[in-house]
Amino acid sequence: MSKYHAPRSSHAFEDDDDSDQDLALDELDTFSPLDTGSSRRTNGQPIPGHGSTGALGGHLELQRLRRSIYHSVRGRRSEDSHHEDIRDLHSEDTAGLLENGEIDRETSMEEDSGPLLAKKRRSATASKPGHKRNVSSIGNIWTKMRSTPQSQIADDFEHSKARGIVVGNRQKARYPPNIISNAKYTPWSFLPRTLYHEFSFFLNLYFLLVALSQIIPALRIGYLSTYVAPLAFVLCVTLGKEALDDLTRRRRDAEANSERYTVIAFENGATSKNKTSKTSKKSSTNGRCHQRVASASRLNNIAEEEEQTQNSNRHAAAPVQELTRMSRDIKVGDVLKLGKDQRVPADLVILKTISTDIDETKPDDTGEVFIRTDQLDGETDWKLRLASSVSQTAPLGRLSDVTINAGMPEKNVNEFVGSMTMGNNSIPLTIDNTAWANTVIASGGAVYAVVVYTGLQTRQAMSTSASRSKTGLLEYELNALTKILCALTLFLSVVLIAIEQIEYPDDRRWYIGVMRYLILFSTIVPISLRVNLDLGKSVYAWFIQKDKDIPETIVRTSTIPEDLGRIEYLLSDKTGTLTQNDMQLRKIHVGTVSYANEAMSEVVSYVRQGFSALSTAYGEGGVKEAVAGTTRSRREIGFRVKDLVLTLALCHNVTPSTETENGKPVTTYQASSPDEIAIVRWTESVGLRLIQRDRKQMTLESTHTGHAIIRVKILNVFPFTSEGKRMGIILRFTNSDGTENDDDPVWFYQKGADTVMSPIVAANDWLDEETANMAREGLRTLVVGRKKLSPKQYADFATQYKDASLSLQNRDANMSRIVATHLESDLELLGVTGVEDKLQHDVKPSLELLRNAGVKIWMLTGDKVETARCVAVSSRLVGRSQYIHSITKLSHKAQAGPALDFLTTNPTCCLLIDGESLAIMLAHHRTAFITAVVRLPAVIACRCSPTQKADVAILIRTHTRARICCIGDGGNDVSMIQAADVGIGIVGKEGRQASLAADFSITQFCHLTKLLMWHGRNSYKRSAKLAQFVIHRGLIISVAQTVFSVSSRFEPVALYRDWLLVGYATVYTMMPVFSLVLDTDIPVQLAHLYPELYAELGTLRSLSYRTFFIWVAISLYQGCAIQLGAQLLVGLDNFQRMVSVSFTALIINELVMVAAEITTWHWIMATSLVATAAIYFGSIAGLGGYFDLGYILTPGFWWRVAVVDVVSLGPVWAGKVVGRRVRPPSYRRVQS
Questions:
Q1: pTM for this prediction
Q2: Which of the residues 573, 643, 914, 999 is marked catalytic?
Q3: pLDDT digit string (tens) for 653-683?
Q4: Which helix (H) or strand (E) holds 256?
Q5: 573 an active-site residue?
């Protein structure tokens, strides 16, 4: 949360007579409104009063601070040394960014006559005539680069150098386009990358070599097209599917890049800028001359400069107009106009804010705007951002006179070093003045901001890893199996050649015979395997996208649906994924009674009774008199409830804002934390509405009467910090006219976490028990207390607090000690509140279902530790009785040892770790840490950066070799999603970045269960069955070829040639075999009812070496039975008759085997079987070149075929029946 503060003075950073090169960022910055707890330092010493809250709300503002001059740099510097200087300046927050590139370097090294700092003498070398000095400043580099060729600027400046940006004007340097791209390929890289990926699989490489072998006459067996066409067909299908997926991604990217924004166009902006620059330069030179001859006081100089700035702001502003431009057309230097709930399309520096409560022709004094960054860093707290004082006070038309100097692009979303120059004024810019891409404007009104980084140079893009081609685990397993088949083929070929040389020796070269056998047996490694699997994946994707139970689900990567059925680790974001980031106060407890749900109506009644009589009465006494009129039995409870509600309505950092919606005024609230807003909304719902808030006072009105009933003066605010875990405020109640009585008491209100508030509040016997009860319900608890101070007590505190704020040593510790001594002791305990972060629909049952399915769930979030713990409990990610072991704030690697020992000895606990501790673990104890945590049932990682999320996913994947699924909804989750084996993006309220980058896009977290339990399980089981059957289909025909070759004296002659070979793998078997992708073993209801069936997939019962060799044995038996039976019943003398019997029996055998593998019949399955049989028998008349057609018409042909099929199918069928009876599969036990 952010404290309320005085805005920066519009002249706090005006230039004096010195060159801008002599300014330092840490000394120029006056009191930072967001830096309330840290000391600013100059030369190692803290500046008194800087960053404190102040005793009486005031602050010691240092109007002018100047740094001493830089040391002279001898000699000329190379471009590399310039680059090193830039990095050094950036890391030390030096003042190089204040250089505007227009100031003469010879005069920029003058001595500083300011009284606040010691003077430094120029070096003798620097003072020599003609000596060229090179100051380490970004501005000098910018000046130098303006004279370099454009190509050099494009190569060096835009990527690795700082930049100077002329607001509203065309920039001289080239910068990346502002384009979101999740595409994997470019038109030039598509073919090389996809072909390399495809031929990295042994299966495709094997068939490429077989096809190329047919160019050699000695190895040619059939037509070249017989071997080339199947491979070309496979590649066309695979590459076409990849191209279609990538085109879909590009279409989605185009939608995001076409989002429209309002851009401010300045007429004659360049001319105005040039004139201003010349005037600035002249004024700066005159100022330096004046400094050398005059000895006026610094305050007089300040007054003159402030008057000069005010006069310059009165100059006629350039006319502006608003244009609409698509996101992809936004460029560096453009000024955007953004409104509430609008996504920021690029990295911006805020120039000006205009509130909806005031006339747009007048500037907003505060320049404050709240932004939501949960899509960037995962933090749910709103961030307060500020417009620079120079640009905030300037008319809109004069923003084109502003120049921004910004550092080089970087990943760190929490740092920014830059400067702003307008006329003679140069002031530093920090992270407080920025809004990064993918954040969302949370405040009402208009925000004007200039684009500083676009496209690939935005913080969001630089924190995102590049997309990669993903391949399913099933394909890697099949690749290994095909290598086994190839080895078997080679072994069989060598054995046959060896036997041939022994039995029938001749002079032929043996290796030619081996190669010909390898080509003959190439069907053992079926080329149609990839075709069937790829087409099957397309069918699975169609099923997913057409499922009405998970509407709007999109499959962006159709190559990995089987991996959905093999997930072992689920890494989930919190905000927007598990929760809605919508806080609601659900419960209060006042010591003797608690209120929740319908009981809140009693709270409304107490508030109405307690405050209804105060339409004109103010102060604490008036409130008590009103409540005293109630019945004695309700009086005590009424006082408690009234005091708690009043405290919650006053102890916060919320600012109300009135906006117009549909012609009606609507009050909205702005704060840095959604918890604060939830509490203030609740107090409004029970009767007290916040209607006015500024840095000095606050006003409440009764919702029952509509009259202002409470006015208070704000004396001190103590903001919430992650270390303190509490927030406090000191108030004095005032009269209706705003006057106050010095004799009236002062009230200190405080709320915070129970762990820190328990020793602060007075002794009680119910706090610990009640907070534990609320925590078990998953509520975020806040303990509320107050303390009454006499005027003398407050005066003593204020004096000591002010003295502590001015101390040079241990200022923060001294201030905290004074607060603890005077305020934080024996607080009156008023009650406890329970705030709920609303979960996404059906998150609790979904997580429970996934846990029962054997999936280990990790929650990776950028949010606070306390928030993550509450969500983990409320969402049932962690069981209510499960112990959560916390590892937080590790600062040294030695501290990690005991924590790792505990995790090793307690594998059933859950781990909660923050980002800092995680970084230490990964840096110094990577192997030991990941070995211990992968066994835990749940892990919660807080304060994680996007890069850390991706690193965790990669680490688990490489260590366990298990399938990792990552799910998120924000731009900060993109790296994690792309690093996972399966990335799932949820279409969020503020953006689709995660959805666009993911492999699968869903709209709700609960849809994940059906995606995994049903579609994932079916996809894996179907593909496993399909792959093994296709291998069986190729292996059985190769066994028949082997039997025939042995019987024909080891001659490498083809048994089935040309069309018989091609037709067998296509029209005669493909439809029935491919129809196995429609098979299901259980209905969808049982898949959710018995998640243990999903866990069984991890045992590899569907596809393993065991099942593979079972199918090999079946293929060996049936191949031998079919070919030997045909040869015995027909003989080898009549080759065509033998082939007709053998091939017909083979086709019938395969059709019956397909029917035997079907678990649940589908009408398409039956149709494909009947249609294929009809196609085969109908095409026999055209197979006269291979069959003896006259023989087929005789009864002898049919009974021979029947006998062969009975012998080949009978034992296999019987074995299946016995196996299902003896060891029934799990799905049959579930169905029974």
A1: 0.68
A2: 573
A3: 888 877 777 777 777 888 877 788 899 999 9
A4: helix 224-257
A5: yes
